[in-house]
Amino acid sequence: MLRPKAAKLDLGGAPDLKDPDLYMSDNFHEVFRTLRQESPVYWNPEADAADFWAITRYDDTEAISKNPQLFSSAKDMGGHRIFNENEIDENNTEASITSIDPPEHAAYRRMISPGFVPKRIAGMEERIRARVTRLLDQLEERGANGREVEFIDAVAATLPIEVLAELFGAPASDGPKLFEWSNATVGKDDPELRVSDEYMRKCLSEMAGYTANLWKQRIENPGEDLISMLAHSKVPNLEGKEEPMSFATYIGTFVLLVVGATRQHAIRSPVACWHQARTLNNARNSLPIRRSSPARCKRSCAG
Q1: Within 13 A of 225's CA, how many CA atoms are on the CB side?
Q2: Which residue of 34, 86, 222, 250 pairs with 228 in a disulfide if CB–CB is 3.0 to 4.6 A?
Q3: pLDDT digits over 93-122, tens only?
Q4: Which of 54-63, 99-108, 165-174 has the lowest mean pLDDT?
C-alpha cells in the first residue's frame, strides 16, 4: 500500500536526511560534511517507518559492505530491498542479488556479469553513440524558442533504459514502459510516480506479465541477450547444489536490472547531469535546460 505523505520531524536542529526539502539547495553538502566530522554513525528517526542509521564516512561504509557476517544484506534479516514485497498482493518475487549475502551473492554476480563484459558493451558502442546524438538533437529541438527542457527526462533517464532494452533483446519502444514500471516500483513516497494503489498494482501486474512473456520466449528460443542468459542460468540452492533459476528469482533479478538502469541517472545526478547541462548551455548558448529537482533525485537514490 502507498504510504501517506510523512509529516516533517522536529529533530531539535539535527538533520532529517530523508526530508526531500534538505536537497533543494546545495547546503546538504555541508550537512553531510558536519555529520562525517561529528556524527559519522547517525541515527535518523522517521515519522512513517522504522528509523535508520546513516553511515557517512567512506571507510566505514566500505568496512560494512565487506563484513556480511556482521552487517547482513539478506532479505530475511531485514536487508536492502528495492520495494516492500509485503505490500504487494499475491507477490511471487524472490530476493534479488542486493538482498543476498555471500557466497550466494557471488554466484549471482557471476551469472549476470557476462552480459556486461567490455567486449559485449564495445559491440554496442556505435549504437549507443547514435542514441546519444539523437537524444541531444531532440533536446535542442525541444528547447527551441526558449522552451525549458528537463535534462534527466530527456537524456539521462532515457539513454540507459534504451540500452537496457537492447541488452534484454527487447525493442527500444519498450523503454518508456520499463521506465514507468521502475518509477512505480521505487517511488512509493512520490505521488507523481505512484499516484494510487490501483496504479501501482497495475504497473506491477503489467511488468509481471511482460517479464513472464520474455521468460517463455527465451526458454523456447534462447539467444545471446541478457534474458536468455537468466532463463538458462543455474544458481545454488540451500544445499549448495546448482539448479535452474526459479521464475520467482528471475522476476526479482529482472526488477533489479530495470531499477538499476533507470536509477543510474539519479545516482550520477544531480551533479553530473547538472554539469552536462551547463556545458551544453555554454556551448550552444541557446538551450535553457532546467536542473532537475534535487529532491526528486534524492528520492530516486533512496530507492
Answers
A1: 20
A2: 222
A3: 555 666 777 777 777 777 777 777 788 888
A4: 99-108
Amino acid at 146: G
Amino acid making up residue 243: E
Contact partners, residue 290, CB within 8 Å, separation at least 6: 148, 149, 150, 151
- pLDDT bin (cut points 50, 70, 90) of residue 267 is very low
Q: In this structure, are residues 72 and 101 in contact, taking their beta carbons and an 8 Å threshold? A: yes
CA-angle at 157, arms to 161 and 203, nearest 5°: 65
Burial group, residue 155, by CB count within 10 angstroms (0-12, 13-18, 19+): buried
Place of cell 494503489: 197
pLDDT of residue 94: 58
Q: Is the pLDDT of residue 145 over 80?
A: no
Banded model confidence at residue 297, pLDDT cuts 50, 70, 90 = very low
Integer Cα distance of 202 and 190 in angstroms: 17
DSSP, res 88: S
Would you state the pLDDT for residue 104?
Answer: 74
* Strand, coil or helix: 289: strand
Residue identified by cell 535553457 is 288
Count of residues in the chain: 303
pLDDT of res. 120: 81
Strand ranges in the chain using DSSP code E only, listed in sequence order = 41-44, 52-55, 149-150, 234-236, 242-244, 289-290
Which among 57, 48, 58, 59 has a CA at the least distance from the CA of 18?
A: 48
